[in-house]
Design brief:
With 76 residues, the chain is mostly helical. It has 2 helices and 2 strands.
């Protein structure tokens, strides 16, 4: 495929997409999709973490920043 054919195809594709978007704008949705939750599935709880446990956990963590453990990702 030469460069002129490629440019022609790109222009036609852009024209088709622009026309499609114009037609989509004309459609008015009357129905909402999805569900709305009226209640939460988890019960709230108080954080009763012992301070000693927290200190031990951060002491064992290789990296810690602003009260969070920094863990590696995708190292496998």
């Amino acid at each position: 495929m030469n460069k002129m054919d490629q440019e022609k195809i790109e222009k036609e594709a852009k024209k088709i997409m622009d026309e499609f978007i114009k037609e989509l704008d004309k459609i008015q949705l009357t129905k909402e999709f999805g569900t709305k939750r009226t209640f939460q599935t988890r019960e709230s709880f108080e954080n009763d973490c012992e301070s000693e446990f927290r200190e031990r956990m951060f002491k064992n963590a290789p990296k810690e920043r602003k009260g969070f453990i920094v863990a590696e990702k995708k190292s496998w």
